[in-house]
Amino acid sequence: MSALMWFRRDLRLADNPALLDAVAAGDGQVCGLFVLDPALWDAAGDPRRDHLISSLKRLRDAMDGKLVVRRGDPATVVPELATELGVESVHVAADFGPYGGRRDEAVEKALDCPLVATGSPYAVAPGRVLNGSGRSYQVFTPYFRAWLDHGWRQPADAPGKVEWIGKRSDALPEAADVEDAGEAAAREHWQDWLETVAAYDDERDRPDLDSTSRMSVPLKYGEIHPRTMLADLARLRSKGAEAYRRELAWREFCADLLARNPEAAWKPLRPEFEKMAYDEPGDDFTAWCEGRTGYPIVDAGMRQLAESGFMHNRVRMVVASFLVKDLHIHWKYGARWFMRRLRDGDLASNSLNWQWVAGCGADASPYFRIFNPTTQGKKFDPDGSYVRRWIPELAEVQGKAVHEPWLLDDDLGYPEPIVDHAEARQESLRRYDAIK
User: Fold this and answer.
1) CA–CA separation, 257 vs 249, rounded Å?
2) For residues 200 and 211, what is the distance between their CA atoms, to the nearest angstrom?
């Protein structure tokens, strides 16, 4: 007897309850499968593809080289392999995303054996945290309190001896090697970063210090489980650890919102924003994508994204506000650009955080909170080192002057601002007043 473990967003062996169930069901004999699904692969940009392939290689190595990779529609691939193996069960971690739910329903219908879902990519699965009326929360703070009260299990043990079953496997696509991909690298990085978590609350908004954990990437691919991270944080007593735990809860709040409102991937949660007047993407959108807006903190963030597949969280908020409220372009275009360029591109976190900035989501930032990109740059990159790191044209400009290059006499080869922020802000407020 054997069992089939279908890996998805859980590319690890430790703290993986679905894998433990598969090992138990198969008396230690397990075939591990990953499906290269065209619906997901084609929608991903190179940063996500590169990380995924590198992570799969690390997982394959940890499984004695016997990870089975097959390309195609999971509703065809998974039942075919299950029949080939003669397994009595297929094991997965539950997927609460819009596409994942539809996919799993199709696979379950096509299988001749049960599809067993155990665990999820979250410490507390979507739909578990409810208010006194049995309804889901729309505001984060009460959600966070209830999330803490609900609690979560301790990390699951790693499986004992597993006899991995090898079968025909398709070749992995060519991709750039990502050195920090995989379960071992994720755990090592996490343990290293924990030594600095005490400073997180004070430094997390400073892109020049780069003090964030960068754990959004291994969380995206399930190279580590948030339950593992929360267990480590529980042993610490600092404002930094508390602030980081709150960020993990915000990730789960976004997942909960999307699970209940699948249309929120690209549509506003607040229906009145359907009437908001937006401009069609054009030259200004191209300038935003390419980091040529003339606002240094915005351009530094977009160039960091283009070159590294990552952007500091504070800067993500600034560039998002600039697109929506200075350029008056619908947030969905920015969200799609991010999903193509981010290595940590996660649909729930991405779309719901864009909605937060755009003022149209649950517990959203008020629409009239419009970031001034110059002020944001001066406050969170006070000596300009982040801007200089990513904008070579401004590398010789010292101090805060780097945030207002239009005031300098020198011809730096850096573009003039494409909009006047004060005027753009007034226009944004005018459009908001029209839908109130």
Assistant:
1) 12
2) 7
Confidence grade of residue 436 (pLDDT, cut at 50, 70, 90): confident
Question: Structural domains in the chain?
Answer: 3-120 (3.40.50.620), 121-155+183-260 (1.25.40.80), 271-435 (1.10.579.10)
Contact of 392 with 370, CB cutoff 8 Å: no
Tell me: the pLDDT tens digits for 269-323? 999 999 999 999 999 999 999 999 999 999 999 999 999 999 999 999 999 999 9
Residue 365 has pLDDT above 90, yes or no: no
Q: Which pLDDT score, from 0 to 100, does residue 285 have? A: 98
pTM beyond 0.90: the answer is yes
The confidence score (pLDDT) of residue 90 equals 98
Residue 338 has which token pair? 């991010």
Among candidate residues 327, 381, 374, 333, the one with its CA nearest the CA of residue 354 = 333
The CB-side HSE value for 152 (13 A sphere, CA atoms) comes to 27
- Taking Cα atoms as reference points, which of 343, 345, 297 lies closest to residue 320? 297
> CA 146, CA 310: separation in Å to the nearest integer?
31
Q: SS3 sequence, the chain?
A: CCEEEEECCCCCCCCCHHHHHHHHHCCCEEEEEEEECHHHHCCCCHHHHHHHHHHHHHHHHHCCCCCEEEECCHHHHHHHHHHHHCCCCEEECCCCCHHHHHHHHHHHHHCCCCEEECCCCCCCCCCCCECCCCCECCCHHHHHHHHHHHCCCCCCCCCCCCEECCCCCCCCCCCCCCCCCCHHHHHHHHHHHHCCHHHHHHHCCCCCCCCCCCCHHHHHHCCCCHHHHHHHHCCCCCHHHHHHHHHHHHHHHHHHHHHHCHHHHCCCCCHHHHHCCCECCCHHHHHHHHCCCCCHHHHHHHHHHHHHCCCCHHHHHHHHHHHHHHCCECHHHHHHHHHHHCCCCCHHHHHHHHHHHHCCCCCCCCCCCCCCHHHHHHHHCCCCHHHHHHCHHHCCCCHHHHHCHHHCCCCCCCCCCCCCHHHHHHHHHHHHHHHC
The candidate with the shortest Cα–Cα distance to 321, out of 296, 291, 348, 353, is 353
Could you report the per-residue pLDDT of 122-145, keeping only the tens digit for each? Answer: 999 999 999 988 888 999 999 999
CA separation for the pair 43, 340 (Å, rounded)? 7
In this predicted model, what pLDDT tens digit does every residue of 199-236 receive, in sequence order?
A: 999 999 999 998 999 999 999 999 999 999 999 999 99
- CB of 3 within 8 A of CB of 26? yes
